[in-house]
Amino acid sequence: MTHEIAVIPGDGIGKEVTPAAVEVLESLDIDFEFIEAEAGDAVKEETGEALPQETYDLAASADATLFGAAGETAADVILPLREAVDSFVNVRPAKAYPGIDAVRPETDLLFLRENTEGVYSGHEDRLTDDVSTLTRVVTESASERLAEFACDFVADSDKHDSFTIVHKANVMRETDGLFRDTVKSVADEQGIETDEVLMDAFATRVCLDPEQFDVVVCPNLAGDVLSDLAAGLVGGLGLLPSANIGPERALFEPVHGTAPDIAGENVANPAAKIISAAMMLEYLGYEEESEAVNAAVEATLADGPRTPDLGGDASTEDVTAAVIDRL
Amino acid sequence: MTHEIAVIPGDGIGKEVTPAAVEVLESLDIDFEFIEAEAGDAVKEETGEALPQETYDLAASADATLFGAAGETAADVILPLREAVDSFVNVRPAKAYPGIDAVRPETDLLFLRENTEGVYSGHEDRLTDDVSTLTRVVTESASERLAEFACDFVADSDKHDSFTIVHKANVMRETDGLFRDTVKSVADEQGIETDEVLMDAFATRVCLDPEQFDVVVCPNLAGDVLSDLAAGLVGGLGLLPSANIGPERALFEPVHGTAPDIAGENVANPAAKIISAAMMLEYLGYEEESEAVNAAVEATLADGPRTPDLGGDASTEDVTAAVIDRL
Ligand SMILES: CC(C)[C@H](C(=O)O)[C@@H](O)C(=O)O
Ligand SMILES: CC(C)[C@H](C(=O)O)[C@@H](O)C(=O)O
């Protein structure tokens, strides 16, 4: 069976780390067909559109998409692409890696972020000169779908056995109340243990003691901010992967951006993008291969070669070759 | 001139640290009239109301209010009380104190949080069984008022000369766009330098290097979460004060909660509440006295006596007496 993979490098170092991940995937004994498409600042400059329709359509039909990064146009690219793959959950692991100087090296979290609604609904109005509004939408159905994913995730895992629901239902009583109650009742039905914490209290507590948390289930903006907070605790966005999962397809992206200061110099660290590709392998059912790629990246991070961000002087290509060598 | 001060201890350790702060204020040569009122879980249990009308009215007429903490009913107490004093800005310093084990001891931030709108608007609806909505409100007038406060604050200060605008205008384009543009244009007019950063990026960057930020101006929920994140970096909520400032009156509260595990034992650390009282002194125009109280608290934190949370075995009363002795 051939897997059709959309490859959207985007801007900046996206153009370097995405081919690196493709190279790693090509070295495996799996039948992939890679189809490349454009998105981001550069294509907007040329065509006026940050996300050409054909790129959207490709992501909406491919089995999976590998996305790199986009610059100024990031929101115009990534939000529609998440929609293209009908993604309802954004999976964001945040753990410290060997060789990285971390504020909290013991951090090992996994965020399951609602990926369709909340303040990301896109409904905004300027009612008068003075007053603007945004309609924050929370539905039972989206909360349920997220909760079912979270329960399956925990049930299928050897490593996790419960999750924490993060919300701000003391202020957003109806909307986050619906979120919290729905997620909790799905988990109760499925016999999965949960606890809950307010998003502001989570921000304090995760700094003081990240080990008290494990899997975190939360609304869209809470997931955005708190997973970036966790990224700060593990030493930055540099090595973090993410997966936007939908019912039939999915999109995988590193959490880092385009890094314009080092773009085009063949020194970008491809690790986050390669780990994102490992998440894709797992999603497509290639668990062994996924683990092998993860292990090869970790060994390379630990023993080198290393790119300059980690104090080495290896190139993106050197690191990619070293990962492939270790497979 | 007599200053009428509403004193609302609330629940838990609020009942211990609030009298401690009053005692410190009484030791100064200032004419205060303290009037006590009830709020919180205990009064709700008795009367059915977490915030009795007479408490609201007192806060709405006193020159300033000292609030302690409330338990389960926190949101039902503090949100209306902020309204009672017509507070448009929540001032939240977050700096590490001597003697406190901090994740990032070099943190020294001051949040100016919008205090009336955003997702705190209170407009929520359950449209159907499936769909709930919240109307997030952002106005030019509230953004302007906050910006003017921020500019005056920076202009009047020897320590600060610019501020950072934190927002999520790449997603909340109309609402946070209005916030960002309004704050920036007020600052530009007044010749105050600003920079801006997205709230998710702020969460990462403040962990990696808190010294790159100083004064942070942000919408309501961003201020809630990011100031609590900063609290995590400085070692917890324990020592952080806050001020809810309105045009004619203001309310001062420690950021910590009711600490039910230690309540009633005369071991609660009164420092955050006493520092909040020092913020009140400054607000009322007693700058020297404010500085003296702050210095006395810092000396007590450094040299003792210390309450058990800081490894000592002194009581709330011992620490309060030591602060007064140092004045
Ligand atoms: C670029 C932006 C729209 C996006 C988001 O807010 O989701 C980004 O911050 C992320 O977390 O992937
Ligand atoms: C209790 C709650 C409503 C409140 C808030 O969200 O503002 C608290 O978290 C705070 O920051 O003072």
From TrEMBL, chains A, B:
Residues 4-323 form the Isopropylmalate dehydrogenase-like domain. InterPro entries: IsoPropMal-DH-like_dom. SMART domains: Iso_dh. Keywords: Oxidoreductase. GO terms for molecular function: isocitrate dehydrogenase (NAD+) activity. It comes from the Archaea. The keyword Oxidoreductase applies. One of its GO terms (biological process) is tricarboxylic acid cycle. The keyword Oxidoreductase applies. Belongs to the isocitrate and isopropylmalate dehydrogenases family. PANTHER family: DECARBOXYLATING DEHYDROGENASES-ISOCITRATE, ISOPROPYLMALATE, TARTRATE, ISOCITRATE DEHYDROGENASE [NAD] SUBUNIT ALPHA, MITOCHONDRIAL. This is 3-isopropylmalate dehydrogenase. It comes from Natrinema limicola JCM 13563.
